[in-house]
Write a structure and sequence with these properties.
The complex is a heterodimer of chains A (261) and B (349). Chain A is an alpha/beta fold and 261 residues long. Chain A is 38% helix and 26% strand. Chain A has ten helices and twelve strands. In chain A, the strands form three sheets. A six-stranded mixed β-sheet of chain A has the order 6-7-8-3-9-10, sandwiched between helices. The longest helix of chain A is centred in the middle third of the chain and has 23 residues. Chain A is globular. Chain B is mostly helical. Chain B has one domain: ABC transporter involved in vitamin B12 uptake, BtuC. Chain B is globular and about 65 Å long. Classes of the chains: A alpha/beta (261), B mainly alpha (349). The interface between A and B is medium-sized, with 35 and 24 residues.
Chain lengths: 261, 349
């Protein structure tokens, strides 16, 4: 489990995160939600080792984050950035191979590439240069790379963690659901998954637990039903939001468009 | 796609790459032979073979072993290493315009060499000829390293390398180095002036074996060391943050690769002066031929660089023999228009 306690992050004099506690257990999908500027991406960056913490403690299965080097960290966690970039005209297969560790056998790498590209519906683009794909396809190609890194390291070093920063932002509804299903399957398979999500309905449908943030602090954490109440959401997003329960299905979250206007 | 399809798809690509490499190696071989054979005195193949095996007259033997062979070896070393450094810097900085000359590394190395030639003679007297081959590469390396550190420090904007700042830092460094070189040229003696003028435009002419061997060993070693960075350079194409997520110690790789580039460029500049544009043009041509994967891009760039530099040298030596134009003129004549084409095509500045 990843445990973060009393995390403060500051850029210069500006404090971005204040006293944040967060857990990412193995086998669970945690959704990180909150309005723009709440500090979701900064918290994700702190948890994966991109930005230093001013205070607090982040541990990966009891190992201090700051005691691990880049190679150690890459074996334990895979990260999909909000806007992944690529400066070379690599094909989808070449991009997916990039993050597979060198310890992984070449033959297995090839079948892993085939498997993850198929999982993300990219089989017919496998030899296409990534810059020639559409925005959504490019995003899925990078997601395939991250999944390959997680899967290869899992078979070499045991289960790890997956961090996805708004993975569904540039995808159509079908692929949004596909990606969230993959994230849930990985969690069910033993990985710890943390997803930054703006779409509260996706979070309600797929997350095991929610971490709701506002102004650099966690204002609610727990199961979907505990955190996603009409009162809490309306307060955090400063707009009227209603929550409807469905028979055996996920909560439906609906902004009240008329009063918001 | 079935897994079994993969090998079938790969064979043609592999063969194409093989034939491109075979073509590049043959081109290097043919131009190298022409470098030995052509010049004010043209030699036949049998004369060259006799000269190398020591059976020829003293004159052709001297031409081959003392004049043209060291020049060829130096040209090969500089062409290979400048092109590899260009490819590495372009990959590392994710910038198609990175070139040791353009971003100021060669300028820094040149200024340091001029300081040693002019002030060294003034302050400590004539530098002993035995020390000279070693002193100049050291000075050039220090100058190149200083500029590389400046570039790495000043071109960052919001945590990422900025294309505009990189080129502007290069312009500033080049103009400072140019002013320094100009001042030192002004106070230099007549003998130094003649040397400096010719050297500052780049030339493979003043190359005896001792200096050539020192430089070529440094350039060859650096180029081999840079070949170890191919996977890291591929990962850099994802951006520095994603490269770190994939397990790369980004800062260590960046400093190590840039330090080795400074060493290679410094070694070349110290003996042949700043030769521009090979580091810019060769990787681009290689990328068009074999694609962007650095495992093939670096060797292909190296061979292309060798072809371009030896070709340019062949040109300047044979345009109006026995007169010889500076090689920098030929490489700039090819590189300048290519650079403008790149600027227009990428439209990044």
């Amino acid at each position: 489990m990843i445990t973060g306690r009393n995390i403060d992050v500051a850029f210069g004099r500006k404090t971005i995160l204040r006293c944040v506690d967060v857990d990412v257990p193995f086998g669970k999908l945690v959704a990180l939600c909150g309005p723009n500027g709440a500090g979701k991406s900064t918290l994700l960056s702190a948890l994966v080792g991109d930005v230093p913490t001013a205070r607090g403690d982040i541990r990966y299965n009891d190992t201090d984050l700051h005691r691990m080097d880049a190679a150690d960290l890459s074996r334990r966690r895979a990260v999909l950035e909000q806007s992944p970039t690529l400066s070379a005209a690599f094909s989808v297969a070449e991009v997916v191979r990039l993050s597979v560790p060198i310890e992984y056998a070449p033959a297995e790498t090839e079948s892993l590439v085939t498997e993850v590209t198929a999982q993300l519906g990219l089989t017919r683009f496998i030899d296409t240069p990534v810059p020639k794909l559409s925005g959504g396809q490019r995003h899925r190609a990078h997601l395939a790379r991250v999944l390959a890194q997680l899967t290869a390291n899992r078979s070499l070093f045991g289960p790890g963690y997956l961090f996805l920063d708004e993975p569904t932002a540039s995808l159509d509804i079908q692929h949004q659901i596909e990606v969230m299903k993959i994230a849930r399957v990985l969690a069910r398979g033993g990985s710890g998954v943390l997803v930054v999500l703006h779409d509260l309905n996706l979070a309600a449908a797929f997350a095991d637990s929610i971490c709701l943030m506002r102004d650099g602090a966690v204002v609610g954490s727990g199961t979907v039903a505990e955190v996603f109440t009409a009162r809490m959401l309306s307060d955090v997003y400063a707009t009227p939001i209603s929550v409807e329960k469905t028979e055996g299905g996920p909560l439906i979250i609906l902004p009240d468009y008329h009063s918001a206007a | 796609m079935a897994i079994t399809d993969a090998p079938h798809r790969k064979f043609p690509a592999f063969n194409r790459q093989q034939s491109i490499f075979a073509g590049l190696v043959s081109a290097v071989f043919i131009i190298a032979l022409a470098e030995i054979a052509l010049g004010p005195v043209s030699l036949t193949l049998s004369q060259i073979v006799e000269a190398v095996s020591g059976k020829a007259d003293p004159m052709p033997t001297a031409i081959v072993t003392q004049i043209r062979a060291p020049r060829l070896v130096l040209g090969l070393g500089i062409g290979l290493s400048l092109a590899i450094c260009g490819a590495v810097l372009q990959g590392l900085l994710r910038n198609p315009l990175a070139d040791p000359g353009l971003i100021g590394i060669s300028g820094g190395a040149s200024a340091a060499v001029v300081v040693v030639i002019v002030l060294g003679d003034l302050v400590i007297g004539e530098i002993p000829a035995t020390l000279r081959p070693y002193l100049l590469p050291v000075a050039a390396f220090c100058g190149a390293l200083l500029v590389t550190a400046l570039i790495l420090g000043l071109s960052r904007k919001d945590g990422e390398m900025s294309v505009g700042r990189l080129i502007l830092v290069g312009v500033a460094v080049n103009s400072i180095a140019g002013a320094g070189i100009g001042f030192l040229t002004y106070i230099s003696t007549d003998t130094q002036l003649r040397d400096l003028t010719f050297w500052s435009m780049g030339s493979l002419a003043k190359s005896g074996w001792p200096a050539v061997l020192v430089s070529v060993v440094i350039m060859g070693g650096s180029s081999l060391a840079l070949l170890r960075f191919t996977r890291a350079l591929d990962l850099f194409q994802l951006g520095e943050r994603a490269a770190f997520h994939s397990g790369l110690d980004v800062m260590r790789i960046k400093f190590a690769a840039c330090g080795i580039c400074a060493l290679a460029v410094g070694a070349g500049v110290s003996i042949a002066g700043p030769i521009g544009f090979i580091g810019l043009v060769a990787p681009h041509i290689a990328r068009m031929l074999v694609g962007g994967a650095h495992r093939v891009l670096l060797p292909a760039s190296a061979l292309t660089g060798a072809v371009l530099l030896l070709g340019a040298d062949l040109l300047v030596r044979n345009v109006a023999p026995p007169q010889e134009l500076p090689i920098g003129l030929a490489t700039s004549l090819i590189g300048g228009p290519f650079f403008l084409y790149l600027l227009l095509r990428t439209g990044k500045l």
